[in-house]
Specification:
heterodimer, A: 271 residues, alpha+beta, eight-stranded antiparallel β-sheet, rod-shaped, B: 181 residues, mainly alpha, Rna Polymerase Sigma Factor, Chain: A, Arc Repressor Mutant, subunit A, 68% helix, 0% strand, globular
Chain lengths: 271, 181
């Protein structure tokens, strides 16, 4: 068909009034690209119908325009907008979700916070280590103090015990400095000796404790004076049910069955 | 009301493609009455008609990039959107396929009663030019252009052979164009 035949066929009127079938529509769209005079004729037909529609215009109710623009601006304010023209293959509008600008700032802030947090972590971990070490030292000190305190308490318990009978041992002429104090538990017979004032025993020698029972010395055990820690605390000797006096002698290491050199004696004062 | 700028259709289309709200306001002022008239031919409920008009303009705004200049005038695209939306809305509301298209007597009274018709176009002036258009010529244009009827439906509605619809439409539109010149 040439342009004039197309124009006079009436197909352009069908197209303009919405009556054209899908095939006719495609045909007309091709022709109007092809023939400028067909395009001009179609424009004129459409303009005629447009004026027909304008002639039948009915003003919308008051406020309709404001409402429309309010809706448009409200939609524009939303950053998540579905763009209906983006069609997926199944024809369903694919929503386009732009990333809000402030998320970039949020991400940047998150990185800054992460770096800051890491620095703080290292700093605090070091501080924690130092503090933990210090706490360990304090714990050790405290344990030592507790130990000392406990020993002191047990020493004090011995002194305070209502059954304890103190006996002072005084140095003999051969060694006037050999002073010691014992506490004899009259109920149990236990003997506790405070050997802290005894001079250190010469090398290869050791102090031995004796009880004088019925005029005869009875071995009461060896006194440790070389071990500083123990020297300053009461040492428990052998128990005696009865004794007239107590004595300390200087013997060879390991002790002797009978005393060879008595250095300190003290009589029990019977109350 | 602010003084109206006159745009050519090409200018208007370009501005709207750039999402110019002022141009859209112009478009609205210029065509809201015409589109509203189309809706009111099909919808009696004025509240529903107002909703459809709003929805139609939102579609026009949101989908403007899908308007293809090469396929025809802007208003033809707009009226197609509006008519299809109206028919779809009626169907979804249970109006079924049975469509009533009111004669233009109703809209005539609406136009003359309502002084708020935008001044950008002279609806009454154009109407006067159409006085000589025969009722059957108006009818076929109304059914197709306003009512979205198919050739089949028009043939049945008017009791004319299917093959005659095309020539009748051509004659009616030729007559219409002659009167508007």
């Amino acid at each position: 068909m040439n342009a004039q035949e197309i124009i006079s066929s009436g197909i352009l009127e069908l197209y303009a009034s919405g009556l054209a079938s899908a095939d006719e529509t495609a045909q007309v769209q091709q022709w109007i690209q092809q023939y400028p005079e067909v395009k001009a004729e179609l424009d004129d037909i459409q303009l005629g119908l447009e004026n027909y529609a304008l002639a039948h215009a009915v003003a919308p109710e008051a406020g309709a325009k404001e409402k429309l623009f309010a809706a448009i601006n409200a939609a524009a304010d939303k950053t998540i907008t579905a763009v209906p023209l983006m069609q997926t293959t199944n024809g369903v509008a694919a929503p386009v979700v732009p990333i809000k600008n402030y998320w970039k700032w949020v991400a940047a802030a998150a990185v800054v916070l992460l770096v800051g947090s890491t620095i703080l972590n290292v700093t605090y971990y070091n501080k924690y280590n130092t503090a933990a070490k210090a706490a360990e030292e304090k714990d050790a000190q405290l344990a030592a103090i507790n130990q000392k305190e406990k020993s002191a308490q047990s020493d004090l318990d011995v002194v305070n015990n209502k059954y304890s009978l103190p006996v002072n041992l005084n140095g003999q002429q051969n060694s006037p400095d050999a002073k010691a104090k014992i506490f004899w538990m009259t109920n149990t017979g236990d003997v506790m000796i405070d050997a802290s004032n005894l001079p250190d025993a010469p090398a290869g020698m050791q102090y031995q404790f004796w009880a004088i029972v019925d005029g005869k010395p009875v071995d009461g055990g060896l006194i440790i004076t070389t071990d500083k820690g123990k020297k300053y605390h009461f040492q428990k000797m052998k128990a005696f049910g009865r004794a007239e006096a107590f004595a300390i002698s200087l013997e060879k290491e390991g002790g002797n069955p009978v005393p060879t050199k008595v250095v300190s004696t003290g009589a029990v004062c019977k109350i | 009301m602010s003084p109206q700028t006159q745009y050519t259709e090409a200018e208007l289309v370009e501005l709207l493609q750039n999402r110019n709200q002022q141009a859209f306001a112009y478009l609205y002022d210029h065509y809201c009455g015409a589109l509203n008239g189309v809706i009111l031919r099909l919808v009696e409920d004025r509240e529903l008609a107002a909703d459809i008009l709003q929805e139609a303009f939102l579609k026009i705004w949101n989908n403007f990039s899908s308007y293809d200049v090469s396929k025809g005038r802007l208003f033809t695209w707009m009226i197609n959107i509006t008519r299809n939306l109206t028919i779809d809305t009626l169907r979804s509301k249970g109006y079924k396929k049975q469509r009533q298209i009111s004669g233009d007597e109703n809209t005539v009274s609406m136009v003359s009663e309502n002084s708020a018709v935008p001044e950008q176009f002279d609806a009454l002036g154009i109407r006067k030019q159409l006085v000589n258009l025969k009722p059957e010529q108006r009818r076929i244009i109304d059914l197709a252009y306003f009512g979205g009827f198919t050739q089949d439906e028009i043939s049945r509605e008017l009791g004319i052979p299917l093959g005659t619809v095309k020539t009748r439409m051509r004659t009616a539109i030729l007559e219409l164009r002659k009167m508007l010149q």
